[in-house]
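can u do me a favor
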């Protein structure tokens, strides 16, 4: 029987995809034929007449496998799926779809890593909570939790109870997003609790700011933006925000990939200041990765053609968006973005892989899977 690992998390946006991605690649590097599956998905893309979870699309790109939705993303709970199921549950065969996908993946791989969805209870409405899916797959579970002490332990205790109820074996715990200077403290206190509860600590991943950087296309959605120019550059990442009135307070020798948020009337003044500072400091590459032209409740009219600073924008291929929001509203919306790894953020993919390789005990993972799961 092929080895199966199920990666779950205590809640959304904790780092399931980051951890799963790193585990898949790291275990492949030690020589195992590793497969991937997102058994229950919610966010999907359409591939012709088929739907596939966004994470499955990401993994097919990173791992270079031929994406087959029925096998790599067998169940999609899109809009209206839950009410349709509750109205006529006998019309749906979700559990069988997952089993068939798993059997196919078993024939292709020595080990398959299954990525969970949301918090452990997600999917319960259709009988497919994370715990129920892991039980169906006869998989050992790796639980990912966000770094802390009291809150971390509380969330672990609550989340693991669902898996214990189903008698699903727990391989161990990965603690994610830990401030580096707090790693030793968390390792001591949370590690002590884990030992007392016979739960292996598989690794602690330090918080990495680069994984929280959005790209311009994500920002466009957050601010309901319209693109004026350089739409192909919406994959530019944003490391910080700069207001058009505060140009002189920034150090462009140290700062890069900045998002300029400015009113249409001040855009050229702001860019002229930036150009002058960069010339003075001999900075060849613009520090600006995108521009938002703010509004007053309305989108501005397309006045890009007449801008005096148009050449600077075109020469540096800076994407320009407009929004109905003012500067404050734009910044608030951007600050609330939930940033995930996707196919347009290759730097995040590389960093996630390295974090797992450097901080997770792969040998303990392999040894820790119960015999009934891990024996061929």
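np, heres the sequence
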């Amino acid at each position: 029987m092929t080895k199966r690992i199920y990666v779950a998390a205590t809640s959304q946006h904790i780092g399931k995809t980051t951890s799963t991605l790193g585990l898949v690649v790291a275990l492949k590097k030690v020589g195992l034929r590793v497969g991937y599956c997102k058994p229950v998905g919610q966010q999907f893309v359409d591939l012709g007449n088929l739907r596939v979870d966004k994470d499955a699309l990401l993994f097919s790109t990173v791992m270079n496998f031929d994406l087959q939705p029925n096998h790599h993303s067998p169940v999609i709970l899109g809009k209206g799926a839950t009410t349709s199921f509750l109205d006529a549950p006998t019309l749906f065969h979700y559990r069988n779809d997952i089993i068939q996908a798993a059997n196919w993946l078993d024939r292709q791989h020595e080990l398959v890593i299954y990525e969970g969805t949301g918090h452990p209870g997600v999917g319960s409405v259709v009988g497919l909570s994370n715990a129920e899916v892991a039980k169906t797959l006869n998989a050992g579970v790796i639980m990912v939790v966000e770094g802390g002490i009291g809150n971390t332990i509380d969330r672990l205790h609550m989340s693991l109870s669902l898996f214990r109820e189903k008698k699903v074996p727990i391989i161990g715990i990965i603690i994610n997003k830990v401030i580096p200077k707090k790693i030793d403290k968390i390792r001591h206190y949370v590690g002590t609790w884990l030992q007392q509860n016979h739960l292996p600590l598989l690794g602690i991943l330090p918080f990495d700011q680069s994984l929280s950087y959005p790209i311009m296309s994500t920002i466009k959605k957050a601010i309901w933006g319209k693109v004026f120019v350089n739409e192909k550059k919406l994959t530019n990442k944003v490391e910080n925000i700069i207001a058009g009135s505060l140009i002189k307070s920034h150090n462009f020798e140290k700062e890069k990939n900045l998002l300029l948020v400015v009113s249409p009337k001040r855009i050229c003044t702001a860019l002229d200041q930036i150009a002058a500072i960069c010339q003075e400091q001999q900075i060849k590459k613009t520090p600006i990765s995108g521009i938002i032209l703010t509004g007053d409740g309305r989108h501005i009219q397309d006045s890009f053609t007449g801008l005096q600073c148009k050449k600077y924008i075109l020469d540096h291929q800076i994407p320009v968006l407009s929004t109905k929001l003012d500067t404050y509203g734009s910044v608030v919306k951007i600050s609330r973005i939930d940033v995930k790894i996707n196919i347009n953020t290759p730097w995040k993919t590389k960093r996630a892989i390295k974090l797992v390789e450097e901080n997770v005990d792969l040998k303990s993972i392999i040894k820790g899977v119960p015999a009934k799961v891990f024996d061929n």
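The longest strand covers residues 170-178. hope that helps!!
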